[in-house]
Specification:
- The complex is a heterodimer.
- By secondary structure, chain A is mostly helical.
- Helices cover 48% and strands 0% of the residues of chain A.
- Chain A is elongated and about 90 Å long.
- In chain B, the strands form three sheets. Chain B has a five-stranded antiparallel β-sheet with strand order 1-2-3-4-9, with no helix packed on it. Chain B has a four-stranded antiparallel β-sheet with strand order 5-6-7-8, with no helix packed on it. A two-stranded antiparallel ribbon of chain B has the order 10-11.
- In chain B, helix 2 runs antiparallel to helix 3, helix 2 (39-64) runs parallel beside helix 5 and helix 3 (71-97) runs antiparallel to helix 5 (133-152).
- The two termini of chain B are 55 Å apart.
- Classes of the chains: A mainly alpha, B alpha+beta.
- The A-B interface holds A 46-47, 67-69, 93-94, 148-149, 157-162, 181-190, 192-193, 247, 250-251, 254 and B 91, 94-95, 100, 190, 192, 194-197, 252-259, 261-264, 267, 269, 271, 274, 276, 286-288.
Chain lengths: 254, 335
């Protein structure tokens, strides 16, 4: 009865809500927005097997092909990441989650994160300290682990079947979370591979790369040598044609 | 075949007709006025041609002297200068060594044989200001020949023409340990799923084409390796050459789904042209321009829990070449 009355966001009246309250409100929100794909108690929903005999196709239609991974044990880290980037709720099931308008209020996010964290023994929200990191080490690590997909200045790029996003709007906490989760088809990097200290350096480099020092001249979208080469070709072609015209003119006037 | 014969015959006819026409030109009345000889400009043009030839030879020398510092810059400079000198020589020739004339009428149409001869005569006589035409032709030939040779030199870098053994030689032998960049042996227990590792052979040159590996771990139930490789999934850990079989780029993209049922399946992706290789089936091409599968290195876990090679790659490493499918790296059994 109480749950039914509590409107989303309206419950912030309580000055300092108890952890139990928060979880309860999160559970209510979960039932409203998340349960169709992630299942009751965050158990996950397997996608219906296509072409299976019996009533399965009919059932699948009724559920609108809802499917989602289990949230047990993903912890506050993952819940906070997906909600604050607007990745969740997902627009279309099976498609890559994209950065989007955040649909929940701050209070609602806190409640949902508390509820998902209560589902299992997951990791907490990381607290990176990029100011402790080393910029040059960060660049080396970013080049080694991240630049293959996200480009060396974190502008994003392409892989077959996915679009590695640009990191220009990513906060330090979100970068730290993404590295540990590996959203969509991104690899996951554990603390054995990238320590928290190294992660600080990587984040420091990404923050630096948002405002690069373009000593080479025009950045042209920071896309690398292709647009630069194209512009050079146009300039060089103009120069060459000019030279040709000058040579031709002189000969004629003699 | 018949087309080649046509080319040969028509080429021969052209050559013969050119040779025969020459003597006819003498003894006719001049069309082009005789210009004043200018030996000074001639010398300048000859020196420019010589400089062009020397720069082109310089390009070949720099090319042969591998491991020169700033080699690329020197190559560009020498070939660029060579073209600049050639262009300057041609400009000098056109402005000072060819007879220029004021024309009131158009040249006669080229339909009649006599008029064709007149045009040939005009071309011939235009060079009459040259006092050392033989030497000049020699200079032009030297510059043209040297530049042509310089442009053809890089063909030597296309690789060995006959000996293909170098392409199938690899540093991997049965029992050789896999180490990371710092030389620490890779332990099976440290290899996690959903991420990737780069490995090298212990005590071997990391720069060699066949040295670097990508190591990934999959749940053993997901592996569908071909029969000849099925014996070698070391607890679900598989190792592939890091060099793409298309253009030889280093593969540093590993796509691995977070929610397996509906997301793209795990694959190694080359960043250059997006060749995509299935890690579960022994490196089959899923997408992209690569023409053959990524070579897989059979590995096993030794008594200490460290990863070791169980043999050699199942196919040649690196970009494809003539006859690549007929060769396999030797299955080294030493050490």
């Amino acid at each position: 009865m109480l749950f039914a009355l509590a409107l989303p966001g309206a419950a912030s009246a309580a000055a300092q809500p108890q952890q139990g309250d928060l979880v309860a409100r999160g559970k209510h929100l979960y039932g409203q927005y998340c349960i169709a794909c992630h299942g009751a108690n965050g158990r996950g929903v397997e996608p219906p097997v296509p072409n299976s005999a019996g009533a399965a196709p009919q059932r699948a239609q009724n559920q609108q092909n809802a499917a989602g991974p289990s949230l047990q044990g993903v912890g506050a880290l993952a819940a906070d990441f997906y909600l604050r980037t607007g990745y969740m709720p997902l627009r279309e099931i099976g498609k890559q989650p994209r950065r989007n308008r955040v649909l929940f209020s701050e209070d609602q996010i806190r409640a949902l994160v508390a509820y998902v964290a209560s589902l299992g023994n997951g990791p907490p929200i990381p607290q990176p300290q990029p100011e402790r990191g080393n910029l040059s080490e960060g660049m080396k690590l970013f080049t080694e682990h991240c630049a293959g997909c996200h480009q060396v200045v974190a502008e994003g790029g392409y892989v077959t079947g996915a679009v590695p996003p640009p990191l220009e709007n990513s906060t330090a906490v979100q970068i730290a979370q993404a590295v540990r989760i590996g959203p969509y088809v991104m690899p996951r990097f554990s603390e054995k591979q990238i320590s928290d200290r190294e992660l600080d350096s990587i984040i420091r480099y990404v923050q630096y790369a948002k405002h690069p020092d373009d000593r080479g001249g025009w950045a042209i979208g920071h896309l690398g040598p292709v647009p630069e080469g194209l512009v050079t070709w146009f300039l060089a072609a103009t120069a060459l044609i000019t030279v040709c015209i000058v040579i031709g003119k002189r000969l004629k006037s003699e | 075949m018949s087309r080649a014969k046509d080319f040969l015959v028509s080429g021969a006819v052209l050559l013969v007709s050119r040779l025969r026409r020459k003597p006819k030109l003498h003894g006719r009345e001049r069309v082009v006025p005789t210009g004043a000889a200018s030996p000074g400009w001639e010398l300048v043009a000859l020196l420019l041609l010589l400089a062009a030839a020397l720069c082109a030879v310089g390009f070949i020398v720099v090319y042969v002297l591998d491991r020169l510092s700033h080699q690329t810059q020197w190559l560009g400079l020498s070939l660029g200068l060579s073209f600049v000198f050639l262009a300057a020589a041609l400009i000098v020739t056109a402005k000072h060594l060819i007879v220029t004339e004021e024309l009131e009428d158009d040249y006669p149409l080229v339909e009649y044989p006599e008029e064709q001869e007149t045009i040939a005569q005009v071309v011939d006589e235009s060079g009459s200001r040259l006092t050392r035409s033989g030497l000049f032709k020699l200079g032009l030939g030297a510059a043209g020949g040297a530049i042509g040779l310089a442009v053809l030199t890089p063909i030597a870098s296309l690789g060995p023409g006959i000996d293909m053994d170098a392409f199938v030689r690899t540093p991997w032998r049965r029992g050789r340990r896999l180490v990371d960049e710092q030389g620490r042996p890779l332990r099976a227990a440290d290899i996690e799923e959903d991420t990737f590792y780069t490995a090298f052979p212990e005590h071997a040159d990391k720069e060699e084409l066949a040295s670097s590996l990508v190591v990934v771990r999959l749940p053993e139930s997901e592996l569908r390796l071909p029969p000849e490789l099925a014996r070698f999934p070391a607890n679900g850990i598989v190792a592939y050459s890091k060099i793409c079989t298309h253009a030889g780029c280093a593969i540093n993209l590993y796509r691995t789904p977070l929610f397996k049922p509906i997301e793209p399946k795990p694959a190694l992706v080359c960043p250059c042209h997006y060749s995509t290789f299935d890690v579960a089936t022994g490196g089959d091409v899923l997408f992209g321009p690569a023409g053959r599968k990524l070579p897989m290195l059979p590995i096993y876990v030794d008594a200490n829990g460290e990863l070791r090679a169980a043999g050699n790659f199942d196919g040649p490493v690196g970009p494809s070449w003539w006859g690549v499918r007929m060769r396999k790296p030797e299955n080294g059994s030493g050490a």
